[in-house]
Structure formats: C-alpha cells, structure tokens
Design goal:
- 59% of the residues lie in helices and 0% in strands.
- The chain is built from 2 helices and no strands.
- The longest helix has 28 residues.
- It is elongated and about 50 Å long.
Length: 63
C-alpha cells in the first residue's frame, strides 16, 4: 500500500485547523471560521495577482 500524501496531523496546516475546529463547532464556531477566511483571502489574492499579471503581459486584452 502506498503512503498517504500530505502532512501528518500534528503539523499545523489550514486544513487541519479547519478539521479540528469543525469537530467542536457546537462550542466556539470561531475555530473553523478564521482559517476558512484565511483560505478565502489567499485564494482571492492569488486570483487578483493572476489577473494583474495577465493585464501586464497581454496589453491587447483590455483595449
């Protein structure tokens, strides 16, 4: 059997933080919301960066 991909659970990652926070959503729901917002902001930032690089490298696109 092949080894599992990804980091092991004691290592802090956004996925592990959301998973551990989702298990305790009945108590403070903030444990899952803040890492989710961080992922949302990172994804939006990479999208904006890609759009900016596309605008710089392809000037005919926006004319």
């Amino acid at each position: 059997m092949s080894p599992a991909l990804g980091v092991k659970p004691p290592t802090l990652t956004w996925e592990n933080m959301i998973r551990s926070g989702a298990e305790q959503l009945a108590v403070p729901h903030v444990l899952a919301i803040f890492p989710g917002i961080a992922i949302l902001i990172a994804g939006f930032s990479f999208n904006m960066l890609g759009d900016g690089l596309r605008a710089i490298t392809d000037p005919k696109l926006y004319k």
